[in-house]
Amino acid sequence: MLDVKNLMVFYENALAVNDLNLDVKKGEIVGVFGSNSAGKTTLMNTVAGLTLHLKYRELRKGGQRITIVGQQIFEGEEISNLSPSDRVKKGIVLCRERHPVFRDLSVEENLQLGGFLIKDQSKVQESIDLVYSIFPPLTKLKTRKAGLCSGGEQEMIAIGMALVARPKLLLLDEPLLGLSPVMQAIVVQALKDIRSLEVTVLLTEQYARPIMPHIDRGFIIENGTLIMSGTQKELMDNPEVMSAYFGM
Amino acid sequence: MKAGYRKERIDRGIKARADDIFAISSYREILYLMGPRLLAVVGLLLFPLFKDITGAYWQTVGFIACIIALLTLSWNFLFSVGLVSLGQAFFFGIGAYFTGYFNHTCGLAPLFSIPLATVCGAVLCTILIFPVLRLRGIYFALITFALPLFLMRIIEATGYLGGTEGISGLQRLPSLTFSVYITVVLVLAVTFIFLRLFDTDYGLVLRAIHDNDMSVLAGGLSVQWYKAQAVFLAALPATFAGALMTHHYRVVGMPAFAVEYSLLPLTAAVVGGTGTFAGGVLGALILVPVSEMLRAFGTLRIVMYGMMLILFVVGLPEGIYRFGQRKYFQFERIVPLEEKEK
Predict the structure, then answer these.
(1) Is A202 helix (H, G, I), strand (E, B) or coil?
(2) Higher confidence at residue B165 or residue B94?
(3) Which has the least CB within 10 A, A209, B73, B109, B161?
(4) What are the sequence ranges of the domains in chain B?
(5) Backbone CA torsion sign across B264, B267, B272, B278
(6) In this complex, do B316 and A65 lie within 8 Å of one another by their Cβ atoms?
């Protein structure tokens, strides 16, 4: 479904993503693991088109020069030069890290905004109901301002917004960041439901343990370079991976 | 660009590690480093000597440009502490009225009335702005925009300080050349002092307030108090500019609070590059003469002026100064993409 070939991203002269090859097949949940500064977020932003947008913005104001090289292919189509909005229309939706929500809008309004691009209102409402069924805690919070929700609830809203946009490929950037184990369990549980919706998921995480049982394949990157990839079983059987990303 | 290559931007060899540490190994490099600064300093200092060539008209334009440059320095100082001011006229007018009062009512000579007005004006400005220092962004900007208009109407309504007629017949300054010189020297001195100040530990706190005032607060420092000090320091060049201009024209009136003294420094700062002291000065020295030259277009002048500003904001948001600095200290070359490691 998604094919990233020889992707290189430079921020000025710093190499953020180095010659990365990555593929995601339809219906899979794929994890990308790596420590801070490994290039996970850059990878996600590049696939979602945000890096391209940033590149033009920086160019205009004379800031740092961003260079993106390599191919990004989505459903057999080259998307490297598409704007973020075009990519969303094609079905690539990113849920950024640190649970970004519209703080002054209610939970319901936040979710409605996720479906802004969808013309058919009944479909949007259907999706919102679906989100409530995936994240039951949100049902009680419909009218609360998103800014007043806890970190875990905001993460649910953020993922919910991405889901309402009806993605084919959902990019989750560190969905468990800063969440308590209980909240993590809810989000991880939601991954199963998301899979049953036939949404393909590409997610990143620093700490692989809670999420590892639910992924099909994983990629491990360090300093922007892919150092290992394999199926869930292969990764879990590897002692180095276990010690570095499982804390065992 | 060819496949497999990218454009790289790197510092010239003269620059060692930091932005202000240089590795110098020859006179040529010293000249490279000092050249632009020397050009600016010597150029400004020599300008008043060419009165015969430029004529009194352009000397006066230079004088006004320097006054605006002082206001811009003040604006940039406030901006560096995270306060966006739309009311440089407030500082300017208060300095102007103070010197008018001292000279006219108390009979002080300009030699005393100008410095006294500068300090008293800055103190009064700080006191008046102190209650609204907690405001941020657009709210602070709006208040500063309103303050000069507010004072203007008070003077008009009460008739105090000369009312609508202002105070005229003030003592004159020795000559135009003297006025130009004193502003030129002050522009250079204030630029230098402000730049230095922002490199000290004290300046670090001020810059920190710009970046994240909550963290400064968490660090145990009183943001309010530091901001008040910053307003005082920033007010000094602006009140001085008002005081000097008053004695130069020998009259002070309500136009001292005019909106153009608020807007010109703002646009000069944008053209030069917000937050850069030298850039602001450069912006003022370019904008004022250009707006004089545009007088030939009559009413269209404002249109041309506006177009220029839009072009700058859209096309060069970093400002002339930063753009020039980048081009001067960095160069670009095409390099192959790094080979795969490991």
Answers:
(1) strand
(2) B94
(3) B109
(4) 54-331
(5) positive
(6) no
> Both tokens of residue B286?
């370019």
Radius of gyration of chain B (CA): 22
Which 3 state secondary structure label does DSSP give A19? strand
**Residue closest to A89 by CA, chosen among A65, A118, A67:** A118
Q: Please tell me the distance from the alpha carbon of residue B247 to that of residue B170, in angstroms, as a whole number.
A: 6
User: Of A143, A156, A74, A149, which is closest to residue A114 (Cα–Cα)?
Assistant: A156
Give the rounded percent of residues in chain A with a pLDDT score beyond 70: 99
CB contact B342 to A (< 8 Å): yes
Interface A-B, measured as beta-carbon pairs within 8 A, has a size of 30
What are the extents of the domains in chain A? 2-246
Quote the CA–CA distance of B304 and B241 in Å, as a whole number: 27
Residue type for A238, please? N
Strand partners, B5: B336
Q: List phi, psi (to 5°) of B241.
A: -60, -45
Q: How close is the nearest chain A Cα to the Cα of B62, in Å?
A: 30
Q: What is the pLDDT, as a whole number, of residue A173?
A: 92
Burial class (CB in 10 A: 0-12, 13-18, 19+), A248: exposed
**pLDDT: which is higher, B15 or B239:** B239
Return the pLDDT at A248.
Answer: 60
Q: What pLDDT is stored for residue B339 in this prediction? A: 54
Nearest CA in chain A to B10: A13
Query: How many CA atoms are closer than 13 Å to the CA of B60, on its beta-carbon side?
Result: 7
Strands B167-168 and A14-24: unpaired
CB contact (8 A) between residue A18 and residue B316: no
Residues of B in contact with A18 (CB under 8 A): 338, 340-341
Which class is domain B54-331?
A: mainly alpha
Q: Does B12 touch chain A (CB under 8 A)?
A: no
Q: Please state which CATH number belongs to domain A2-246.
A: 3.40.50.300
Q: Please compute the mean of the pLDDT values over residues A69-83 and round it to a whole number.
A: 91
Residues 217-236 of chain A with CB under 8 A from chain B are: 225, 227
Tokens (6 digits) for B196: 């230095």
Task: Name which of B9, B317, B337 is nearest A61 (Cβ-Cβ).
Answer: B317
| pLDDT tens digits, one per residue of B54-107 | 888 899 999 999 999 999 999 999 999 999 999 899 999 999 999 999 998 888
- Residue B240's nearest CA partner among B153, B178, B163, B182 is B182
- The 3 state secondary structure assigned to chain B is CCCCEEEEEEECCCECCCCCCECCCCHHHHHHHHHHHHHHHHHHHHHHHHHHHHHHHHHHHHHHHHHHHHHHHHHHHHHHCCCCCCCHHHHHHHHHHHHHHHHHCCCCCHHHHHHHHHHHHHHHHHHHHHHHCCCCHHHHHHHHHHHHHHHHHHHHHHCHHHHHHCEECCCCCCCHHHHHHHHHHHHHHHHHHHHHHCCCHHHHHHHHHHHCHHHHHHCCCCHHHHHHHHHHHHHHHHHHHHHHHHHHHCEECHHHHCCHHHHHHHHHHHHHCCCCHHHHHHHHHHHHHHHHHHHHHCCHHHHHHHHHHHHHHHHCCCHHHHHHHHHHHEEEEEEECCCCCC
Residue positions counted in chain B: 342
